[in-house]
Amino acid sequence: MPVTTSDAAFRESLFDALGDDEGADFWQGVYGQPIHNYSRTYADAETGELETMDDKQYAQYVRRKMWEKSAEGLQAAREERRRERKEEESRRRREQHNEKQKPRKMSHTLDDPIFDFEIEASLRRGQDRKDKRRWQAIWQDYTERWKELQQIYESRKGPSADDGEQIFLRNKIAWPVESGKRKDVEADAIEAFFRKVSDIQQTEHDHAMPLSSVIKVERLKWHPDKIQQRFGFMQVESGTMDGVTAVFQVLDRMWTELRTSHTSKP
Fold this sequence. Notes:
Blueprint: H1 5-19, H2 21-31, E1 41-43, E2 50-52, H3 55-69, H4 71-101, H5 113-156, H6 169-172, H7 187-204, H8 211-221, H9 224-231, H10 238-264
Antiparallel strand pairs: 1-2
Helix pairs in contact: 1-2, 1-3, 3-4, 8-10
């Protein structure tokens, strides 16, 4: 390759810059960076031996390195990386498309971890469905018993109500725990009950009430004064009222926590 005037000028300026500050300043202004004193040695690709570049080779090497570091070189490198990324994305999309087209195979050997994972996932989904149906039935029974209790109240509050029949509130009230029994009325069980039924409603209905709305309604329902006012015509034992108070306290705490959490959000 013939030596051009540009190559010769660069070589001359290079060696001048390496030994003179003013020359170095000139090329720093051209390339936007200082001239670097790169090593003259390189490893021969065939022999692996260290070789030393002559002045011409060294000047070409430095010029190429300076161009790579220049704005034009950086832009070219960015374009190259962008092209490589596009090619890589296209390759991944092709692989994903090809993978989707393949028929899914499942090994049925007992020691196949993929098969074991599929079986476990299927069992979990089945258990989740059973759990959801069970809690739907629990919630339905809870709401139906409260409707019946409300009907008793409506039938007894008129002036012509027959007060001859003695009714025990403990036999009619629906306790908000999984078992529905007074003996299981504890704080953790009450909170778990309302959170569980609220989760089920959210998954079943797009417009189901959120937990805060459920707690707001139930809190008013379970207020001890409200219970005494509505169902005082029944036999209300101290143990029953203790349970009512315990339920209200949990609902009141949950209501306060939910309101605090809502107001503290930015």
